Structure formats: C-alpha cells, structure tokens
C-alpha cells in the first residue's frame, strides 16, 4: 500500500510514495494541471509499481474514478490560487424580505383551505430575511455532486429528508413527480387555463421572459387581482406557484420560476399528495452540484434550507440569531428558530475554520427531541479510502431522486 507526503502547493510539487513491499522510494512530479502523470519510475522501481501508482490532484482525490468532475471543481482551482472572480462568494438570494411583503397575514378562508391541505403552508414563514453568502459559499466549495455530500475533514455529511421535514415541515412521503419540460407555447396555454389571464397577456409575458418562465412579481400581481375578484382557484394557483418559486424551486435568475411547475397545481385538491420535501432536496442537490463547479457564480434552490442546516449541525461556524429555544417550539418548523445576523467572516476566514472541524464540533442529532422512529434520525456518512462507504447501519441509495437513511450512533463514530 502506498503512502504519500505533501511537500508543496506549487505546480512542480513533489510527492514521495513509499511501498513497503517493494522496499523502494518513488519520486513523482505533478504536471501543470495538478495531475500525477504515469511515467517511468526512478531507477530500481518495477513497471508494475508504475501501473499501480494512483493519479490525482494535490489536496484532492488521488483516485478520480469516483469524483470524475473534480477537474472542474472549484476546490481544484482554489488550490492553485484561482478564485471564482473578484468576489469569492457566490451570488445567493433568499427572497425572505420579498416574501414578508407578499405573504398576507391571513388568506381568505377559501384560499386558506387549499394552501393548508397542499402541504406547503409552512413555506410562508420559514425564509431567512437575508443569507450569509460567505458561510454558504464556504460549504458549497466542499460539495461533490458525484456523492451528493459535503466532504468534511472527518468524513462526509449531507442534508437528508429528515432534515427537510424537521426544518421546513414539508411532507417527505407521497408522490414524487418529475415535471416535464414545456415549450413557450405550452407555457402560454397553461397561464390562460390555470392562471386566468388573457391569451395576449400570457404571450406578451412569456415572450418578455425569453423562455418558458413566469416572473414572480407577475404571479403576485395575478394573485392580488384574482383575490379581489374572488376567483379563488386562479388566485391560489398564482400564490402557490409564487411561493415555491421563491423558496424550494428558486432558480439562479432570482426573479423567475419555470412554467412547468404550474402543472403541479392543476388539481388544487390533489397537490397535497406530493412529496414536497423530496422535491426541495433534489432541487437543492442539483444546484449545489452546479455551484461546486468553478465556472458557476450563483446558487439556486432554497438557501434557507442550507443555511439553517449549517446552523443546526455546526453551532461554532458562522454567526446566527436565535428567535426561540427548541424547548418552547410549539410545533413550529425549526427553520423559524434562526434569524439572519450579519457575519464578519469572509470565505477566506471560513475555509481554515472548516479545515479544522472535528466530530466533536458537530451536533449529530439536532432534532433528537422529536418523537420519531429511530431509523429516521439524521446520519453520518463515514468515508474510508475515498469512495467506500463504511457503516453497517447506513444505506444510501445513490440516485438523484431517492434518499434512504438509517441511523448511526455518534457514540460509535470514529473518523
């Protein structure tokens, strides 16, 4: 088995591997791209050892068979001093302040019934007013889309369905619906049929969006108009689409929502059967994967979910405001526990802090006071030899739309 010692971060880095079975030393130089090229070894080493020697990146994976996109990952570029741009943090929008002005204190009873039964009512009050973009960006740099997890110094961790249910009170059981892509023409038809706007108004709006989208502000105006006209079904659809477009389905434009999501609200009595929590998690996973790439500058999805997850599990990282103590919860989503506090730490300051984290810095079961079956508690991903999941109590189905977690005791966790 090979072991190595890292000597320098320069592109001409030397790595010394020692193979105890061959009784020889191997000196290798990395190329300009950071890889260890497979070349002839020094005198005395066999060709079979050359074939067995791993290739990879400094400060990253030596076995790139799993992390196949690491070449484009932001962490690889940061190692060589290449930042995303003048601003090292991502552009992130939380929509919290806008939702405070758009979500009424009370909905008309006709609408309240549909909204409550939809399973989305909690999203009206869970968004942070602002997002700590430096804190979120520092964690995104540790996300890998191939494993759907944050690579921490002691192993891997991920946001789970249980976390979504705990933080947002969204249903995690039910129908998982994959929305089909829609054309601009279909986006116009959907707006006419389910939002109650005219053909000309819908055509003009979709054309201004330059794609199959609706503007969040436009949906709010439709909601206000139909509420005043007592057109409850149209008003409820516009309201719910604006709500999910500002939270769990937020995209990187920060002003638009994809028209295909309107299909979820065709039947207002049936939309309660969807697994909204799974949809929220898959959407966030997808945007985290995008944002972990060096070329990406924005983060979509629901950043409140990510930041509140960080606050729950990493109490010593970042700055957080607490609205109430969990002991006096009264059944509220735990995301409402936290409020925005402007942090003083930048991405550069947070990177070494994350590098030094140990398992004792993590609250492994923040939701343990809930009455729930033990198997659905949050779990730890413990990775050995870069890609092998070692945990007899953990099963993770590594598919983009399905996550199953079994419990592991933090008392039995050894990094």
Automatic annotation (TrEMBL):
Biological processes annotated in GO: meristem maintenance
Protein source organism: Pisum sativum
PANTHER family to which the protein is assigned, alphabetical: PROTEIN MAIN-LIKE 2
Pfam families: PMD
All residue ranges annotated as the Aminotransferase-like plant mobile domain in the record: 119-372
InterPro entries: AminoTfrase-like_pln_mobile, MAIN-like
Record's protein name: Aminotransferase-like plant mobile domain-containing protein
């Amino acid at each position: 088995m090979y072991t190595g010692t890292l000597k320098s971060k320069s592109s001409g880095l030397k790595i010394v591997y020692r193979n105890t079975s061959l009784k020889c030393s191997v000196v290798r130089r990395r190329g300009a791209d950071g890889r260890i090229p497979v070349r002839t070894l020094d005198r005395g080493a066999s060709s079979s050892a050359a074939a067995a020697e791993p290739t990879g990146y400094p400060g990253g994976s030596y076995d790139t068979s799993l992390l196949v996109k690491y070449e484009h990952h932001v962490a690889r570029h940061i190692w060589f001093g290449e930042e995303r741009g003048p601003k090292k943090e991502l552009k992130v929008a939380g929509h919290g302040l806008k939702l405070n002005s758009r979500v009424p204190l009370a909905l008309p009873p006709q609408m309240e019934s549909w909204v409550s039964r939809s399973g989305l009512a909690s999203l009206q009050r869970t968004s942070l007013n602002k997002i700590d973009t430096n804190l979120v960006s520092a964690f995104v740099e540790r996300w890998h889309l191939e494993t759907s997890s944050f690579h921490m110094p002691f192993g891997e961790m991920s946001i789970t369905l249980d976390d979504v249910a705990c933080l947002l009170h969204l249903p995690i059981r039910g129908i998982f619906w994959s929305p089909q892509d829609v054309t601009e023409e279909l986006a116009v038809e959907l707006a006419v049929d389910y939002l109650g706007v005219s053909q000309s108004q819908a055509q003009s709006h979709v054309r201004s969006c330059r794609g199959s989208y609706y503007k969040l502000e436009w949906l709010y105006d439709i909601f206000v108009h139909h509420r005043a006209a007592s057109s409850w079904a149209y008003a409820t659809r516009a309201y719910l689409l604006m709500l999910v477009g500002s939270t769990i389905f937020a995209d990187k434009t920060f002003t638009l929502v994809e028209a295909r999501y309107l299909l979820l609200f065709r039947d207002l009595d049936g939309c309660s059967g969807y697994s909204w929590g799974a949809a929220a998690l898959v959407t966030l996973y997808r945007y985290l994967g995008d944002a972990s790439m060096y070329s990406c500058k924005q983060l979509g999805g629901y950043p409140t979910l990510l930041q509140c997850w960080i606050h729950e599990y990493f109490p010593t990282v970042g700055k957080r405001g607490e609205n109430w103590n969990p002991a006096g919860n009264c059944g509220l989503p735990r995301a409402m526990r936290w409020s925005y506090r402007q942090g003083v730490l930048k991405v550069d300051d947070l990177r070494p802090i994350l590098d030094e984290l140990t398992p004792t810095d993590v609250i492994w079961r923040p939701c343990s006071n809930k009455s729930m079956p033990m198997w659905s508690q949050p779990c730890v991903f413990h990775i050995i030899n870069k890609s092998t999941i070692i945990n007899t109590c953990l099963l993770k189905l590594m598919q983009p739309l399905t996550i199953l977690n079994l419990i592991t005791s933090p008392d039995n966790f050894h990094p």
